[in-house]
Specification:
Blueprint lengths: L7 E3 L5 E12 L2 E6 L3 E6 L13 E7 L2 E7 H4 L12 E7 L2 E7 L1 E9 L3 E2 L13 E7 L2 E6 L1 H4 L2 H4 L6
Parallel strand pairs: 3-12, 6-8
Antiparallel strand pairs: 1-2, 2-3, 2-9, 4-7, 5-6, 7-8, 10-11, 11-12
């Protein structure tokens, strides 16, 4: 693995420590994050067109500058309490391989840099989010952020009928 000066931070002891950046957001009061390189943009919630016979967690599709983008409700995906949409509700547009999708989130809170050694990997399911959906947990002081494994959250086989050709 090649590291550039953009990929490192200097520790107090003078050593070099690899770091990552994540976009943090909330779902039903829980704080979650995805790698920033997957995030394309954050938009207000437009009209969402429902799709017949779609999985329950597929909220529908939106027209984003002429592109049809599926929108997933992660609270439904993880069986979390459903809250009403507010002025802070956003759609986080992400790119996985050659497919764009939107994640309906309660609020996008920040972009955060963290040291890779700050991530704790679970060995078993935590509440409703199984270990196959998580990269690990990021401990920031007293905060605990769930890092999502987007390749698993967004299962292309489940979504094939709803993806743009």
């Amino acid at each position: 693995m090649n590291l550039s000066t953009d990929d490192i931070q200097v520790r107090d002891d003078g050593g070099l420590l690899p770091e990552e950046r994540v976009v943090l957001f909330t779902l039903s009061g829980c704080e979650l994050g995805i790698p920033i390189h997957l995030a394309r943009e954050i938009i207000r919630v437009p009209d969402i067109t429902r799709m017949p016979k779609a999985p329950a967690f597929l909220e529908g599709v939106i027209n984003l500058r002429g592109r049809i983008i599926p929108v997933l409700d992660l609270k439904k995906r993880f069986d979390m309490p459903l809250l009403d949409r507010t002025e802070e509700t956003r759609i986080l547009i992400v790119q996985l391989k050659d497919q764009s999708m939107g994640l309906l989130v309660d609020k996008v809170t920040e972009v955060l840099r963290y040291a890779l050694e700050a991530v704790v990997t679970p060995k078993e399911s935590i509440l409703n989010i199984g270990v196959d959906y998580t990269e690990g947990f990021l401990m920031i002081g007293t905060r605990l952020v769930t890092l999502l494994k987007m390749e698993r959250v967004f299962n292309v086989e489940e979504m094939k009928p709803f993806l743009e050709k």
